[in-house]
Task: structure prediction
Amino acid sequence: MELISGLSFQTLFDVSPDAMLLSDESGLIVLANPAALTLFRYTKEDMCKLKVEALMPVRHREYHKHYRKAYIHKPEARSMSNGRALIALRSDGQELTLDISLTPLKTNEQLCTLAIFYPTDRRRVAEEAYRASEERLKLATKAADLAIFDFDSNRNVLHWDEDMRLLWGAESTDSISNKRFSTVIHPEDRKARQSALDNAIDPKGNGEYNSEYRVINPSDGSEQWVSAVGRMHFEDGHATRLVGVARNITRQKVFEDKLRKQRNENEILFKEQVAAQTISAIAHEINQPLTAISAYSEVALRAMKVGGIYPDNLKRALEGCVHQAQRAGNSLHELLSFLNKSNLVREVFDLNRTVKEALTIAKDDGYGGFYPELQLEKKMPNVIGNKTQVQKVIVNLIRNAVEAMQGIGIDDSKVMITVQTHKSINLAHLLVKDNGPGLDVETQKHIFEPFFTTKPTGIGMGLSISRALIEANGGELWFEPNATKGATFHFTLPFAT
Ligand code: ADP
Result:
């Protein structure tokens, strides 16, 4: 009390930065503070001779007199925000728009009125700027589909805007306790959201808040995914306020979920395809030896039935069976090695000799009805790769050539096999050329696809496996139509040195 005992009304009146006037019941100005003298541009002496109407344009004076009398009759405090804008007149004739607050003051003798003036323009500009910035923020958040939240971590209370409340489908109050807020979060997501909040609150952290969780609308039980991002503010090392935005990401989550399911389905489909291809490849590999075993066995059985068993013939048939069974076993072994590429055995070998061996195998397989024509480059350097696989590819190409020619009943079926150096790229180059029907443009597009076949009993895996084998050995396999008739298949292989 001692501190303010020296303060008088006059002191407060004089030091106020707002313009103040005290007028009596007749409207005479009895006191004016320095701020009022500056605002209206009067000296103290001049101003205190005036009636308040003198501070208004002539056109408002008559009306104001009535207003003043009514006010004296029923005096009441009227705050600035309640007030109307007033047009005031400066001593130099300039008009000012001011807000005014009125306070009736009862003195011993009569009722005085304290008027405080505030330049309206300044306040209005500030208000308008604030309104415009709020409007802009609202538009921006609306455009981005964002809701705003403001978490007071001292009081554990969350202030939220209307969009945020809509997102929650919950209370229509401006704020809500953090505990109540947590109850609408999906139980499975509460822990993660709380730990995101704890991280943001931790003064040792960077204050960032980032969390995705589901909210359950209390009115209809529907579920929405929300993504919330914010930043914690600290004062003296204590978390005080977390301000951020939240967005409904349900559609995005549903889409992601659909994609994930689709990916899983595709993966299953792919695995099924791989399984089907592997089975077909196995079938392709053992089909030939099994046919041969069956043929040898039939020969042996027939011989036993008719009696007169010739041990040499029987021995040959049984040896044939053993050889073909071993071949089937080797093929399976090679196939498994190919599927598990790390086991691929690479060796240095003579491609010309491999071609001759392949011709023998093709003949053994029953594809002997053709005239082979060999053009083998002399002193051909050795190649490097898996010899059994390369041999398999050559046999397959010969078999395809023979089948194509047999298919159209060509008598002089000729298969020309060329081995040469591919000069421009320094690779071994092998060509298998036939004089069969060749391939139409549509067929050419598909021949390397698994399961593509134009043969009634074909499997359609030969060329796709052959290409994969050559590529695994560092080469390439392709097809070119012949100038006249027939087809030519090419492949390359790297030289050993
Ligand atoms: P398959 O021999 O089981 O049909 P391939 O993958 O070896 O499987 O061959 C696929 C298809 O390519 C064949 O069905 C055939 O239409 C075509 N084709 C392959 N080689 C030749 C060729 N030399 N001449 C004509 N068509 C061929």
Remarks:
- The mean pLDDT is 86.
